[in-house]
Amino acid sequence: MKAGIDLGTTYSTVARYDRMTSKPEVILNRFGKELTPSVICFLDSGEILIGEDAKDMQAGGAGINAAAFKRGMGNPNFSVEANGKTYSAEQLSTILLKELIKEAEETSGQKIDQVVITVPAYFNDLQRKATIRAGEACGVKVLKIINEPTAAAISYGYKHSEDKTIMVYDLGGGTFDVTIVKVSKGNIDVIGTEGNHILGGKDWDAVLMNNACDRFNEEFEEDPRDDPATKNELIVASEDYKRLLTKSDSITFIIKYNGHTGRYDITRADFDAGTKYLLNATKDVIDKLMADLKLQWGDISEILLCGGSTRMPQVSEYLKQISGREVITHQDTDLAVAKGAAITAELYASTDTRLRGDVRISDVTAHSLGALSVSIDGNKYVNEIIIKRNSKIPASVKKPFRIQEGNMTDHIEVYTLQGESRVPTDCVVLAKEVITGFANDGSGTAIDIGYSYDENSVVHVYAYQGDEELHVDSEPVPEDLTFMSGNPHDMAAADDSKIARNIIICVDLSRSMKPSMEQVTSAITDFVKTTAGENTKFGLVGFGDKVGVIRDMTADSDVIIGALPDLKPNMLGRGTDGCPLGTAESMLANQPGVKMIVVLTDGEWGKRDFAVGEALNCRNSHIAVVAIGFGEADTSFLKQIATVDEGAVYTTLSSLGSTFSTIATAINNGSMGLRERK
Ligand code: ADP
Ligand code: MG
Q: How far away, in angstroms, is 338 Cα from ligand 2 center?
């Protein structure tokens, strides 16, 4: 039998798809319950309690408890020591999964051999791979891992016929995810996801517990949180109190500690007020996602609540208030994920073509995938993003990689990273991949490196030389990654004179330039003469109201110099698109070697944000943008569009010549963005 398993931080659920009723259904555990606590308790006797029994023990404080270990998935530093053994989160997950499967088999009377396991959408590659391994270690086939909010949307939407854009708001025990899904006639299309993985029901528990403990401390001048066993009990109790507050308007939190008994009334209104900041934190995540996807509340048909913590009345009230949309709660909130997984399991390799034909699922990746590479100026390592977050999966991108001339290496090391930052050490380093088996005669061998996300959002790296696939071996990521913060010295060995250089000069041709044209053309003429050479190509672009290519890429510097005297303000005519960076970027797109854009302007540009966006694209394409301004030009704007350090220069008309000459020298020395990457 195929099963879907919601392997939750705090609770887990198993479900299957019933072909008779064409509906997913939860398989109860041996206590007849739908939810099994994700808790393991190691007793001194060596006995291991799992689920319900372990949770009881946790409250009693006996044995060694492992709870919320899902938060440690894929983290090599997370471990639980018990009875002389060390367990990783992955191993703990295997213990739990085995028990879940065993109990489901007992109550259903059917053997489970294939499973779909759910994971939070934000789970990175290491966490996903760990989850797959944890499942496989149970002796079952892991058909797929699927994102929890996607699973919830599937169980909710797989039979919906109208077109809808649903926001899945998933607030669990320790995590929060928001995912936007388009549902239409069985097509489940995830368009974006964002999360905060340290925010969840536990934070609400903590607010309750701290409220009561603070008051106890005030009353008796003793802090019950100082005693670990008492604290453990209080953590468990505070969750129960929180659930009570979902049903009633107030509770009395009782603390017994060191012979004292404190009773503290807490109303729902107090609780809601004290935890409002947590809901605001979920809104931050929503806002970010909607901004990324350029969506407004008007674009959202409804909000689907998911995860146990959305039972708190404050959640739907808050969401209604901030969104004005319909908020859907069904009794199934914390079963929807397991049911969606069960449907997915059935879909997968299903013989029921009716179901298969009815439902199509497409998902996105929550993290950008990048590779460690060298910055444009050659001075530091950066995370070069290759597949952007919220890309549809599976996704695959091939990147050409050229081994420097004279370099006879027989292997290439590739570090893969997940994260949004340019700074490698801010990202998760996934793997060190070593590519071997290629022919390299030292003449500047070209290799293609492919980076991909499979449909589980799991990362793969592959490499080709021509049509031949090369060996790619994963090596353990070194513990010491400080080199990533250092200077990539080995890059400096390149012989700069041989490197192909591409320089595009973008000249402001707005009306205000009229009195400056003579000095401008003379400064640019000298610049071109100084930087010209066998390996250097130039392009010339004018901009003002409109953008125009005056001369396309050419190695003949005289062609550029010859065009300069004809430059006239307003020669391009009226228009609205006044940013030259996109045009220059596309002119550089297929040029080998280093790429640079030198922009000269005497004023601020109309579409400033647009220009900043184009500059960012240039940066991502490893183009060095140098922005020179004079007159009305605004220094902060120059800084925003420059992509290299020291690339924003404010000068005066009379110093224009010497400014250009300084830049020309820097280019010739290879010290301004002109060192070939890799
Ligand atoms: P996870 O998937 O992270 O394990 P769940 O979706 O199962 O989480 O949700 C568990 C969380 O939901 C816990 O923090 C639990 O306290 C909370 N929760 C469950 N039921 C209620 C309720 N009736 N009122 C308030 N919180 C609840
Ligand atoms: Mg959950």
A: 9
